[in-house]
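Each field is set out as follows.
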Amino acid sequence: WDLTCSADGKRLALVKGRAQLDVYLCALEDEGRRLGPPRRLTLDERNDSPIGWTPDGRDVLFVSVRTQSANVYRQGIDQRYASTLLEPPRTTQHAVFTADGGWILYHPDPLPGIERPAGLARLAETGGSPVAVPGSDSTWFPVQCGCRVGAMCVFSVCADGRYVFYQLDTSEWKAREMARVEVPPKDWRSFWHLSPDGMRVALEVGGRTRIIDLRTGSEISPLPAGRHALELLGWAADGGLWLGLGDGQGSRIVHADLSGATREVGTLDYFSSVCASPDGRYLAFDRETYEANAWLVEGF
């Protein structure tokens, strides 16, 4: 932009810039009471955004476009390079590990010239060929799994103004209904988060955080009066919630337990995604960096 031409018409000047998302890590220090300094994890020149972790908390899962289409990658917290979670030509933009780490559940992207897959697929962590989950279809979205030992996997279906939550039994690969939550149509696309034990979901409806116990369908109010302006970011490893409060310079990160007690642990620059590690040691988030330079063009 800002294209200008010299008086003799022999030179052009312009400004060229670009923005890029990368994955960063912050350590949770002092037993989760303080955020350590952020450090960049992904060192490539693509847009990268975190979507989760491996159950052991050693690898971050993130979405990136590094070939012809977006795919999920994994990268160790102390590694410089990432590897694909699904080898091409299989691609996906949403994937999750079962609690025991034995299976990867994902929604396959369509391959060129092939009709979109009907539903959910599973792939053994050790490799092999993916297998369709019986009875699943494209409405089983998203699928999430708790990270604690024995935690269930859950998916939701939107129907008649409600989120209908189902448990997915990963031993028999069968689904059973657990709870229904009324949601206004304008909030149907709100993303929900599954607790580490797989027993609760958190979602924002009408600007308010709601916690639903999937075993009873009852609602828990996790925040004291006056704190409902906080943005839901996801679950903490200890069963509390991570929330954000924008202040014009970034977001103050707040931990809230289900009794309503809150504490601020630090501030993060602007981001669009935050994921807590299952072991409670890190927050992974994306940060946008921007660069712009003046260029001179001549000899054309």
